[in-house]
Amino acid sequence: MLAHYFVLLTSISVSTWATIVFDGRVPGDAALADFDSLDSIFDPEFTKGESVLFSELLAFVDDDVSLFDQQASAKSIEITIDDDSIFAPGGAAPQTAVRRAELSPNPAQSVDNVTTTGVKTLHFSIKPSPERALNVSHEYLMVFLERADFAGNQISLKTGTLLGSDGATKNDLVLLGNSNDGGETLFTTAFEPDDFTNFGLLMDFDQNTIQIFQSTGTDALVQQTESLSNDLSGNGQLHFGLNKNPTDPGEDVLRSGFQESGILESIIYGGIYVEDSADGTITLA
Ligand SMILES: *[C@@H]1O[C@H](CO)[C@@H](O)[C@H](O)[C@H]1NC(C)=O
Ligand SMILES: *[C@@H]1O[C@H](CO)[C@@H](O)[C@H](O)[C@H]1NC(C)=O
Question: Which of 9, 72, 120, 198 is deepest in the core (most CB within 10 A)?
């Protein structure tokens, strides 16, 4: 078990004037081509297969607006993987056993590590695609913070059959702590098929703690855990998308194991933003 302790939540409040340090909510009038542009909200280059543009991997979901998109007149987005979703990191061998399509904040829109310093709340809403289902025989990594030196993930939200598990939580959303400390489970909730699941992850990058707020549909966020110890050092990048691992990976999960062909799988996101919670405020609705 993780050590955990209480913090005094003196000023958690519903707030409409929070300071937003990264706003990944997609404006209602955005076009798909905007995601290929150098001044996109999200990095137009990473992370995806080489010969494809983000505009070809994304679709707008106009008829289902998530909690935190409503107030910003923003819209949700669906991101898709197929057999070509093979990422080749600069100079390294392609990750042939993994299928990846992930949005990360455009570095130009999140300078000075603004999302990984101080006290910040990461907001996002996530929903399965009704048409392009995941295959829960596999492990999917869907939201994660990856250290700037790529030597691990401080937090990871997963679903499906987690590698090394019996699949008991394959239909859940499982939030895991730092992968260098064994990736312990911090929080688990059902992955609702028809509603957005909303998260607020209050992260103190000075104290190395995380506290989880969560709700379903249009309900306000509810505190789900106390403040939990978790190593958040190393800065790095947030990722939102699909990172589908192979089954039965050998020693190298990136390049061995089984990955079926002929796939077309999607996930839907809304309400991605990071707010400054240094004053103890987190927006709940
Ligand atoms: C951002 O984080 C990286 C990795 O930890 C670090 O090398 C860099 O100095 C940081 N930049 C600023 C402006 O703090
Ligand atoms: C799910 O994945 C497993 C392992 O890759 C594969 O054998 C199976 O055919 C897949 N099922 C569906 C419905 O695609």
Answer: 198
- Asked if 200 and 221 count as a contact pair (C-beta separation under 8 A), the reply is yes
- Residue 16: the pLDDT is 52
Residue 241 confidence (pLDDT):
98
Residue ranges with strand state E in the chain = 4-5, 20-23, 26-27, 58-61, 74-82, 99-103, 119-128, 139-146, 153-160, 172-176, 185-190, 197-204, 209-216, 222-223, 227-229, 237-244, 264-276
**Do the beta carbons of residue 25 and residue 272 sit within 8 Å?**
yes
pTM: 0.94
| Domain 2-276 bears CATH identifier 2.60.120.1160 | yes
Closest ligand 1 atom to the C-alpha of 234? 5
pLDDT value for 250:
85
For ligand 1, atom 2: residue with the closest CA: 235
Atom in ligand 2 nearest the alpha carbon of residue 263: 14
Please give all residues whose beta carbon lies within 6 A of any atom in ligand 1, as ranges.
112-113, 148, 234-235
Cα(260) to ligand 2 centroid in Å equals 7
Enter the DSSP assignment of 179: G
pLDDT at 10: 41
Hey, where are the domains in the chain?
A: 2-276
Phi/psi for 158 (5° steps) reads -125, 165
> Which residue's CA is the nearest one to ligand 2's atom 7?
260
φ, ψ for residue 34, nearest 5 deg: -60, -30
What is the structure's pLDDT at 207? 98
Cβ neighbours, 10 Å, residue 11: 11
Which residue has the least CA distance to atom 13 on ligand 2?
135
Which residue's CA is the closest to the ligand 2 atom numbered 9? 260
With a cut of 50, which residues of the chain have pLDDT below it?
1-15
